[in-house]
Design brief:
With 299 residues, the protein is α/β, with parallel strands linked by helices. The chain is 41% helix and 13% strand.
Length: 299
């Protein structure tokens, strides 16, 4: 078991034995994924708009090579709009078209369809339908994106990572075909913050990075931003704890305020942490970007 340290959060645990098993499975899936690339014309690389670089699978990025692709910053409604705008400019400069996508807004769906039509290889015009493939790490919203393109409930969706269990071809509107695949998470992340960020958006299971430490790290991100901190305290604490600036203390205050109490009168930190993570993933705490282009001097 590996122990790491996070500001205002104490020690956290990463289950290395489980991580090794998952890594072996993902290596096998990557080999299988390479076989699928030759059957599709355009790849939709789906990233989380709150975490564009950390939610990118760099092994997958290298495997794609020069394959025709469209980069999707999904869940754009959950990210800070100005930060997402800066990400769009940076990523567009890397050579591939990029789109901030909000599944709740029809105009972004129309824009996505226009971009897919524009990326359609000329040689397919009179031969067969366009074949697409959605790829990305778990819980970045691939299934929701596919359902919007299909205009129907074609695949299961959910907040938990790993909803998509195996590859499947889906008939799309206009005769297109979409290959949906399970999420592929890179076997390594660069630092503790990367692990926490991935766990916060639901791409790493709480069996790998525990929920309490993740929630404390996430609360610290809210407290670093004045507007987000006010929204957080107003939602959970009715703004009554302005003096509380420590993430661990805030989590305890949230548990007390929302009745997360164990037998014996102790605050149930695990229950409070799960509630905070769930609310963040659903967007009820307001938009929050977990990284910005300026964080990467060499990008």
């Amino acid at each position: 078991m590996f122990f790491g340290r996070c500001l205002n959060s104490g020690y956290f645990k990463v289950n290395n034995s489980l991580q090794r098993v998952e890594r072996q499975v993902m290596v096998r899936e990557e080999i299988r994924l390479k076989e699928y690339f030759r059957f599709v014309d355009v790849v939709l690389e789906v990233l989380d708009a709150r975490l564009p670089l950390k939610s990118r699978n760099y092994r997958l990025h290298k495997m794609l090579g020069e394959k025709n692709r469209l980069v999707i910053l999904n869940k754009a409604d959950l990210a800070d709009k100005e930060t997402t705008g800066r990400w769009l400019k940076v990523l567009a400069g890397k050579g591939w078209p990029v789109l901030a996508f909000d599944a709740k807004r029809a105009f972004t769906l129309k824009k996505l369809e226009k971009m897919l039509l524009a990326s359609r290889p000329q040689k397919l015009r009179y031969r067969r339908s366009l074949r697409l493939m959605a790829v990305g790490i778990p819980n970045v919203g691939k299934s929701t994106l596919i359902n919007r393109l299909a205009r129907r409930f074609a695949v299961k969706t959910g907040e938990r990572a790993g909803i998509t269990r195996g590859p499947q071809w889906i008939k799309m509107r206009g005769g297109w075909e979409m290959l949906d695949t399970p999420g592929l998470l890179a076997p390594r992340w660069r630092d503790n913050a990367g692990a926490f960020a991935l766990a916060a958006i639901g791409s790493l299971d709480s069996k790998v990075v525990e929920a309490v430490s993740t929630a404390k790290w996430l609360l610290a991100q809210f407290l670093l931003r004045e507007k987000s901190a006010r929204t957080l305290k107003r939602y959970y604490l009715q703004g009554e704890t302005e003096k509380e600036q420590d993430a661990a203390a805030i989590l305890l205050a949230i548990g007390l305020s929302r009745g997360c109490i164990k037998q014996g009168g102790q605050i149930d930190e695990e229950k409070a942490a799960q509630m905070v993570l769930r609310d963040f993933r659903r967007g009820v705490l307001g938009p929050l970007s977990l990284e910005k282009p300026e964080d990467y001097a060499d990008f």
